[in-house]
Amino acid sequence: SPALAEKASWKSNRIHHLRKFCAEMSKGLNTLSRQDIMFWWDTLTPHQQKARHAEFRRFFNYLMGRELLPKMQYNPFTTSDDRPRLYKAATPPRKSQRLTVPAFWTVYNAAGHLGFECLQVAMGISLTTFMREGDICSLKLSDNLEDNLLKKVIGKSLSQVGEAKASRLQWNVGSYDLLRQLLQKARESSFKNGACPYVISHTPKVKRVGNTKDHYAQVTPRRLCEMFDEARAYAGFAGDNPPVFHGVRSLANAIALEAGFGREQIQQVNAHKSIDTQLIYQDGHALPFDNAQVQFTASQIGGSFA
Asked: Cα(260)–Cα(41) distance, rounded to whole angstroms?
């Protein structure tokens, strides 16, 4: 039932996969065979297969439980070891190069030469907090900073599981030197950029606001990634698949593992797992923030933002 809280996302996104499947299938349920499913399955990309497998397994269990698939002896999406499974397509090679620590600082310094101080701040925040570019660009100096704490409800988690269960992280800026240096840079930039309320600010050649900006110096995620590409080109990166801004997040994961942080700590700060389901019952009240447990030192990241 779409009325169930845990099934609310079905109507908004997952039902799309089922509708597309029905549109591509010319046969009715009474004549549908496992071979038909295999032909369709092989047309999907690895990402599409991963996104559909679990939900389609549940859906076909529902159909078979009501004997609506007479041509099938078992669920084609089974994960049982005693039944033939659908073959998963091999994942293609990575589209972009991994960002290394030396490469990070090369692009960081190039950003300074280009006058992209906002990119330097954004790269540093991504490296120290694991935030995505969308979350970084939405940070506000007044709204997200409170009593030496940087607080953020992670956007991707919010869109996936809702306000009550979304990952809510906070960083103690008072004891996190690297992050404090970055936020100080952000405050100084804000004054130079027309008192822009956003942590990431940059005065463009043409001052304008619109649907995606409420202050002329606000930096959108798209523009931030364009700045990164410009700085990367200025730094002289060659090759068909150079690193991208999102690679900073992957680099943070690699540094954290090497620094000895546990996988659960890294998973938490990446916001790959929502908070306890008990928080559902606190909806409408002041919801707590988890303390981010991963903090880097200057020696671990190979430089300082001072």
From this structure: 41
